From TrEMBL:
GO molecular function annotation: 4 iron, 4 sulfur cluster binding; metal ion binding; tRNA (N(6)-L-threonylcarbamoyladenosine(37)-C(2))-methylthiotransferase activity
Keyword Amino-acid biosynthesis: no
Keyword Repressor listed: no
Superkingdom of source: Archaea
Name under which the protein is recorded: MTTase N-terminal domain-containing protein
């Protein structure tokens, strides 16, 4: 699978984008430099300001309209889940597992859930 990755945001988010890319390579994904070459597009973004939020939602939908499978990574899917429903998500603390999570989703059509997520779920409920 060929993956194109776009990263937006702060210095931490830029670092997470590189971590995501490394994880993808470790799990056999081919990183490409062009949207045209990609099977999957990952957009890693954060939301701090409303202007940025609106621009990123627009960009996510723009990528979707190109007919690409879009994965939304970073704090945006966690903070604004209702605005990115229908997209596969990779959260900030999962950046180092991005390749594994995406591989599981593609091969098994399921999302890997880690202990940290389960603990948070049970604490809430």
């Amino acid at each position: 699978m060929r993956v194109y990755v776009e990263g937006y945001g702060c210095v931490l988010n830029t670092a997470d984008t590189e971590i995501i890319k490394n994880s993808l390579k470790e799990h056999g994904f081919e990183l490409v430099n062009s949207l045209d070459e990609a099977d999957i597009v990952i957009i890693n973004t954060c939301v701090v300001r409303l202007e940025t939020e609106n621009r990123m939602i627009y960009r996510i939908n723009e990528l979707k309209n190109l007919g690409k499978d879009v994965v939304v990574a970073g704090c945006l899917p966690k903070a604004l889940k209702n605005k990115v429903n229908g997209f596969f998500h990779i959260y900030p603390r999962e950046a180092h597992r991005a390749g594994e999570i995406l591989r599981d989703y593609i091969e098994k059509n399921k999302r890997t859930i880690y202990a940290e997520e389960l603990i948070k779920h049970f604490i809430k409920n």
